[in-house]
């Protein structure tokens, strides 16, 4: 049989007009707020997927138009060269502000596609803890006592709550989905309403001109004894006015620190608690010891040794054997001891604890409910005001926050004609792969996972117990035009063993024949491609064709 040989020792390509592909952004998601550092900056991690071959990914941030102006827009910046297998990732370093982020993918000078995610924040993140005047209360919310919404667009929360019967060991928080804070929205993982935090968010946004996010790990009715015991023993179920599920209420705080705060960073924990300890007539030294221990345990369990707490002075209570509304001075003294207002030589003094508001003096029918415990009506705004007065300009200048931990860095390799092997670093202590945003199915516990067609993420845990979620990676049902094909040996064009991924080229594919390889197009057969690069040899048998 006569053969015709094509020998090329130089670079050759043949190409056609390019068809635009789809580009998506899977991380970050809209309304996410990331903690800034004290230089008013934060690194924003960006990731997503594309459906046609690309060799460069660019991103930019556009500060949303507001009066007064805020944020600093960026030019287009290359965040990744030569992305692989339809997945890209990179970073932008942004000033404090409220942004829309644009991403576009290129192949040479051809624009492949673009995408935008709106309302991404670099600002302040707070974690709330304590009892009902920190978290709101379900019964009060049912009576219409839930506090005002945030009026400013830049106040964000995750509108999700765990069941009050959840044990600490059973906490399974889904990927954060942020919303503007409405009056009746939950503040995940346990806040039951906006309470005073919508009004506080508005005040801080106006003063700082950056977005604000709140998480809430409070527990209505909780006494400090329960917090202390469960900080020491995550299996304990102590009774202290209320019996909580195993490991709670402290487990709520720990879960929020290890999940939300790990991913989004934090400025401080805002603590408002003491009313139940008035009822229990807790002594000054006991309350001080317990609060100090809870603070130290939170730092240990989050791996954040300097995690800042802001402690309100709160104790007012009425009910049960207490017929008249009263304050309990031993609790107030203990809170001041921990803060250091009674001197840093006090046994229970704890560094990096700041003075929160004094709320016991806020007593009026228009401020609190008939039980003289819970704030109501204009009381929510008054409570927000006294919190704002303690979160001063000096506070934000001097308190060192924790910025977000980076999400797991995904990589992938083709594993057959239509499957990807997805990988993350093997330095984590735990892995869960899933194709479900609620994480209620476990596909693998390895640092790598291979699958075809679908969208996947991995949840990892670090040595401190912090849980990080990867961006979503898509495995398409057709790799044509997305993953370039390279010869891996000499052989025939229509044999999958000749090519990477064991995939025969299609009319959409970018094909490279490597140096030293001899690829044969069988007699009477047509070899199809979109673009071909020859470093080796291409051999034509009788009546064979090469077609793009």
In short:
The chain is of the alpha/beta class and 548 residues long. The protein has 10 helices and 34 strands. Strands 3, 5, 6, 8, 9, 10, 11, 12, 15, 16 and 19 form an 11-stranded mixed β-sheet that branches.
Shape: elongated
CATH architecture of the largest domain: 3-Layer(aba) Sandwich
**Which class do the helix and strand fractions yield?**
alpha/beta
- Count of spatially separate domains: 3
Mean pLDDT across residues: 93
Radius of gyration: 29 Å
Question: What fraction strand?
Answer: 25-35%
CATH third-tier fold name of the largest domain:
Rossmann fold
Let me know the largest β-sheet. 11 strands, mixed
Q: Please estimate the helix content.
A: 10-25%
Produce the secondary structure layout.
Layout: E1 3-7, E2 23-27, E3 33-35, E4 41-50, E5 56-63, E6 77-81, E7 87-95, E8 97-107, E9 110-130, H1 132-135, H2 138-142, E10 155-158, E11 178-180, H3 197-208, E12 212-216, H4 224-232, E13 239-240, E14 242-243, H5 250-264, E15 268-272, H6 275-279, H7 284-302, E16 309-313, E17 317-319, E18 322-326, H8 329-339, E19 353-358, H9 379-390, H10 393-398, E20 411-414, E21 420-423, E22 430-434, E23 448-451, E24 454-461, E25 467-469, E26 473-475, E27 485-486, E28 491-492, E29 510-513, E30 518-521, E31 526-528, E32 531-534, E33 537-541, E34 545-547
Parallel strand pairs: 3-9, 9-12, 9-15, 10-12, 15-16, 16-19, 27-29, 28-30, 29-32, 30-33, 31-34
Antiparallel strand pairs: 1-33, 2-4, 4-7, 5-6, 5-8, 8-9, 10-11, 13-14, 17-18, 20-21, 21-23, 22-24, 24-25, 24-26
Helix pairs in contact: 3-9, 4-7, 5-7, 7-8
């Amino acid at each position: 049989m006569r053969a015709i040989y094509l020998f090329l020792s130089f670079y050759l390509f043949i190409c056609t007009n390019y068809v635009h592909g789809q580009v998506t952004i899977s991380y970050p998601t809209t309304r996410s707020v990331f903690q800034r550092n004290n230089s008013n900056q934060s690194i924003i991690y960006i990731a997503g997927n594309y459906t046609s071959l690309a060799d460069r990914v660019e991103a930019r941030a556009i500060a949303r138009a507001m009066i007064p102006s805020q944020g600093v827009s960026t030019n287009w910046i290359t965040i990744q060269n030569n992305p692989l297998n339809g997945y890209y990732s990179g970073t932008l370093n942004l000033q404090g502000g409220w942004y829309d982020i644009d991403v576009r993918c290129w192949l040479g000078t051809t624009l492949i596609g673009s995408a935008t995610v709106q309302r991404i924040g670099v600002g302040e993140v707070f974690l709330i803890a304590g009892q009902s005047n920190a978290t709101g209360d379900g019964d009060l919310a049912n009576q219409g006592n839930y506090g005002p919404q945030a009026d400013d667009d830049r106040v964000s929360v995750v509108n999700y709550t765990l069941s009050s019967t959840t044990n600490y060991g059973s906490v399974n928080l889904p990927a954060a989905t942020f919303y503007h804070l409405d009056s009746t929205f939950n503040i995940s993982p346990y806040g039951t309403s906006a309470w005073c935090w919508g009004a506080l968010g508005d005040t801080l946004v106006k003063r700082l001109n950056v977005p604000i996010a709140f998480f809430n790990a409070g527990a209505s009715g909780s006494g400090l004894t329960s917090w202390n015991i469960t900080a020491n023993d995550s299996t304990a179920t102590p009774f202290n006015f209320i019996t909580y599920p195993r490991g709670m209420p402290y487990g709520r705080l720990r879960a929020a620190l290890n999940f939300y705060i790990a991913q989004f960073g934090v400025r401080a924990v805002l603590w408002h608690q003491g009313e139940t300890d008035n009822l229990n007539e807790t002594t000054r030294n006991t309350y001080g010891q317990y609060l100090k221990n809870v603070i130290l345990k939170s730092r240990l369990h989050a791996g954040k040794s300097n995690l800042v707490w802001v402690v309100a002075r709160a104790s007012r209570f009425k009910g049960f054997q207490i017929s008249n509304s009263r304050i309990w001075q031993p609790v107030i003294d203990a809170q001041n001891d921990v803060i250091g207002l009674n001197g840093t030589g006090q046994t229970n003094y704890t560094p990096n604890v700041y003075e929160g508001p004094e709320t016991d003096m806020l007593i009026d029918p228009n401020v609190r409910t008939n039980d003289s415990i819970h704030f109501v009506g204009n009381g929510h705004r008054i409570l927000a005001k006294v919190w704002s007065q303690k979160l001063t300009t000096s506070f934000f200048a001097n308190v060192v926050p924790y910025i977000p931990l980076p999400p797991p860095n995904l990589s992938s390799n083709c594993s057959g004609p239509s499957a990807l092997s997805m990988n993350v670093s093997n330095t984590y202590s735990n892995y869960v792969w899933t194709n479900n945003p609620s994480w209620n199915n476990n596909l693998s516990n390895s640092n790598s996972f291979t699958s075809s067609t679908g969208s996947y993420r991995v949840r990892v845990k670090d040595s401190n117990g912090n849980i990080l979620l990867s961006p979503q990676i898509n495995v398409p049902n057709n790799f044509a035009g997305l993953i370039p094909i390279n010869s891996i040996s000499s052989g025939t064009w229509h044999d999958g063993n000749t090519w990477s991924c064991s995939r025969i080229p299609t009319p959409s594919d970018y094909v490279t024949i490597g140096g030293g390889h001899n690829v044969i197009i069988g007699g009477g057969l047509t070899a199809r491609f979109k673009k071909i690069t020859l470093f080796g040899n291409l051999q034509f048998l009788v009546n064979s064709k090469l077609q793009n």
